[in-house]
Protein 1
Amino acid sequence: RCRACARHSRPTAFRPPAWALRVTGGLALAALWETAARFSHSLLLPGPTETFAALPGLLQDPLLWHALRASNEGLALGFAAALLGGIPLGLALGCWPRLASFFEPYVHLLLALPTTALIPLVFVVAGLGLPSRALVVCLFSLPVVVECARDGVGRSDHRDERAARQDDVVVGDAVAGFEADAPEADALAER
C-alpha cells in the first residue's frame, strides 16, 4: 500500500467547526454571567436574562440614543479627521521618500507614545469638550492610518510605470494595505 492510502485509512479525530466553538464559548460565558448575577444579588450586575428582557424598553427610550450620540460624537469626528488627514499623508509618504524621511519620525513617535500620558495633556490644553475628545481619538488613530496607507503604497507593484502613475492603482494598493494590516488577515496568514 502507498503512504497516501495508509494515511487516509486511519481514523481521524473529530474536530467541531469553528462556528460551533464560538457559539459554545458564548453560551458558556452567558451561563457564567447568569450564575454570577444570581449569586451576587447585586443591582450592579444584572444577569443576561434581565438585560435582554429590559432591552426593548431601552431601545425605545430617547435618553439612550442621546447618551449614545454624546458618547460617540468625539469618536466619529476624531476618526473622520484621522482618515481625512492620514490617508493622503500616508499615500504621499509612500510615493515620495524624501517626504517620508521627514514625517516618519513624528509618526513613529506618535505610535510609541503611551495613550495615558497624552490624554491629560490634551484635556489640559483643549478643555473637556467635544473638540478635545475628537483630538484624542484623532491623535491615536492618525499614525495607524498613515502607516497603513504608506504600507499599502509600498506593497504596490511599480514595474508597470504607466499603471503606477494612475491614482486608482495607488489608492487600490493603499486599501489592500489596510486590509492586510487587519488582525483577521494576520490570523489567516499564520494558518
Protein 2
Amino acid sequence: TKTFINSSMPFKLKLAARPLHSPYQIRFATMNDLEQILTIYNHEILTGTANWNDQAVALEQYQQRFQDMQQQQFPMIVVEDQHHNKVAGYAYYAAFRSISGYRQSIEHSVFVDPSYARQGLGKALMQQLIHLAIQQNMHIMVAAIDSENTGSIVLHEQLGFVQTGYMPQVGQKFGQWRDLVWMQLQLSTTQ
C-alpha cells in the first residue's frame, strides 16, 4: 500500500492510499489553505447548525488554532478539487479534554463545502482521520453532532461509531435550543 509522508508538519504521519475519484485528492493542510478552510467554516457558522458558534472567525484566529494543533501534533487534512485548485472540505482532530487522563481521546470535526456535498468527501476525510488517529495510538475518537444532523449520524454509524450520549437543549443556534448527540469509536483494542 502506497502511503504519503506529511512533509508540512513537524511529526511523521502517513495518509492511507485510498484513492478518491478524479479530481479529488486528500492531503495535509498547510497555512496556504487556511483562507479557503475558513470560508467553509465561516459559511457553516453563519448558515448551518453543525457548528454552534455564532460569530465568524478571523483568519488570524484560525492561523493560531492551526499552529497550536501542529505544536500538539494534531493533523488537519483537506480534500482538494485539483481541477479548480480549491479546498472542497477539511477535517481535523484535537484533544477531547485538556486533562491528562484524556490524552488518548480525541474529538474530530469535518466540514465540506456545500457545493461538494453528497460526493463521499466527508466519509473519505473521516476514514483518513481514523487512519491517522490509529497511527498516533489514540484510543477513542469522539463526535459531538447536532441531533438533527441525521446525515452525519448515519455516516458515523457506517464507520463504526456508537451513540454514547444525548444531551437535550445543551446549546443554542439561531435562537433555538439544540440537542447534542455524543458518538464514539474505539480505535485500539486495549481496554
Protein 3
Amino acid sequence: PDGLESIGEGLFNGCSSLEYIYVPNTITSIGANAFSGCSSLTEIEFQDAGTTAETSKALVFEDVATGSGSSVSGCDSLKEITFPNRDVVIGKQAFFRSSIEKVTFGKGNLTLSEQSFAESANLKTVVFDDETMIAVIPTKAFAYAGIEEIVLPETLKEIQTSAFGRTKIKELVIPKSVETIGEMKGNNGAF
C-alpha cells in the first residue's frame, strides 16, 4: 500500500506459501525475522529510490538477536537477492545462515554490520555495482560464507578482522583505496 513505511519484526514468519514480495521505496525498515520460514519465497523485489523525500530514504534491515535466525532464515527457495539502487543498511546477522547464493548491491551508500551474511554457506558470489559506496567491511560480515568470487569496490577504506574469515575465496584484489586491514589471527584473520 502507498505510504507503508515498515515491514515489522516477524511479519511474514512461517508464511510457507509466500513466493514473491514487492518492497516499495516508501519502506525504510524491515524488521528482524520478517521473512523467516517463508520456504517457498523465490524473489524479493525492491523498488529503487524515488525522487521525493519520502521515497529516497535509506532501507534498513534491522539487527537480529543472536540465536534467533535471520530476516530470511528458512527461505530455502530464495537463491539470489538484488538490493535496490538506494542507500541500504544491513543490520547485525540480518542475513545470517541464509540459503542465498548470490548477492548484488545496487547504487548508493551501503552499510554492513557484523555478521551480516556470516555462515551463509551457499553464498558464492557477491557483486557491488560500480556506484556502490561502502567504506567498511565489518568484522565477520561474510565469515564462514561460501564466497568464491568477490570484487571489492574502489570506495572501500577498511576491511576489519575476520571479515572474510574461513571463506572459499581463491583470489582477492584489494583496492588501492583500502587503508586498514584487520588483524590476522591464525585462520580467523581478515581473510
